Amino acid sequence: MGVFGSKGGLQDHGPVKTGAQLRLQWVATRDPLRPTKVRTSLARNQDSPEGKQPEAKSNDAAPNSSVKTTE
Amino acid sequence: MPPPTPPLKLLNDSILSGVDYGLVDQYTQLRSPSASTLIQGLELAISKSAYSTSLKLWLQLASGQFGFGDFYQSITSTKELRILSIDPTGACDLKCPTMCYYHPDISLRRGLVEESHLQRAIVEAVSDLDLKLLMFMGKEPLLNPERLFSLLRFAGPASQRPFRTGIVTNGRNILRQASPLAESIQESHLDFLDVSVDSADANTHDLIRALPGTWNLAVDGLKWVASAFPTFPLTIVSTLRHDNSNSLLPLLRVTRDYCSRFQIQPLQPPPFVSVGPLDRRYVVSFFQNLLSELEGPLRGQNLKVGFELYGYYLSDFLDAGFFSPSDFREDAEGQLFVSLEIGGNRLTVQLEVLPLQAWRLARILYDGTYLAHMHFLQSPDPFSLGVGSIIDNGIASLYSKAIAVGSHFHQVLASRGDHECRNRGCWTTCFGGWNGAENAFVSPESILAKPSLCTKPDQPLTPLMSSGDML
Prior knowledge:
The complex is a heterodimer of chains A (about 70) and B (about 475). Chain A has about 70 residues and is an all-alpha fold. Chain A has two helices and no strands. Chain B has one domain (about 1-470): TIM Barrel (Alpha-Beta Barrel).
């Protein structure tokens, strides 16, 4: 509660490694001196089933899972 | 195995027929799911869900495996601010009576924070807090287009950005800002646009928003975006109020030719607004009518409808048989949901059971104040309730301060241990209005003395299980 709006819908991201790389690259272009942490994403990944990025299961993945950035 | 989900069409099939409390009550006689049913359902849900961090936390709390102290330790062990909302204006061209979550006496004369501070905060949030969603919202973000679109350009194109961007607007200025908005969409600096419309009837919407012409401006803006950018994610967001259920559902029909995404949110309770929470039977009845609409007149329209369900309504929805705990799922960002296919349309129920603010959501006000809890905007001086300013502090340190021992967040969590609802059957689907209780500290009174958000009558206080440890 407290968020107004759709929040862009549910998210089913690609491999976490790609996400971390993208984060490093984005931060480096905005603030080259800032060391970017990757710990949080990796920690979260270990929380997913089998400790790895799960494969989407039919009818179980977030809706519109083929769409990466929107609902 | 949990019992099979009853058929959906239990209630009045006649859409827009108004609320029939008697009929609804046949299915909502406080037959809350037993703890064992919920636990079995959560276990099954975890085995089926692609992601399960939040589901596991819920299961651990519900089963007594975790106390609230364990929960606190668990969620503060990693620092992840998932959603950062920025108010770039401190201004709005509407004065919505009874439901503006900004106190009318909040000063709008403080200076705007320099954009460089906002840029630095965004970078640090991405770098140190793994930010996933940057939202620009009100007040009304389109009233400061220079800053808004400059920050979107700073965020850059979606393909090179590790987070999403969105705008929530009242829609009055979409056409006026068509040029920079078009550029943001074309350059993929903006990932989605939410436009508030609360009724199919223009007059009703304008009465709610207290400014004639608002409905027409918003709808004209929606039509323009849909026409110019047919595949761009455009969502109509609506507040379900005490007075608009009969004119809200037709909105889906009226606008389906140019908008296929809808987000419906029951009115946020006090202290966000000055009116009481919606009665549970009213919300259940509305949802039933929504199902009937999607199954009937809107069959095959491929609409995507989101419905935000606060914890204190969840047991009623389970009792009504709309879905079962084994249907719960979680997305990559920890959002809990149930996904239903209704007549060729997708209905996603977002489950707001666990707290969100402070540890997953924060706001930066127009002057740079970092606000961990949105309900502080109901105070005439939210600046004094902020954790600090991004001018003087890094956002990672502000985040840490917002969830530290003794913080508002920690106090709300600690208050669950003494909550009067602990022995109620619906405790484990609501935890005493936890996702709303986090909004209940504007005055200095105790969280336990807060106004009740629950619309259930008193229930027999039957202990479900031994309590876990308390803070």
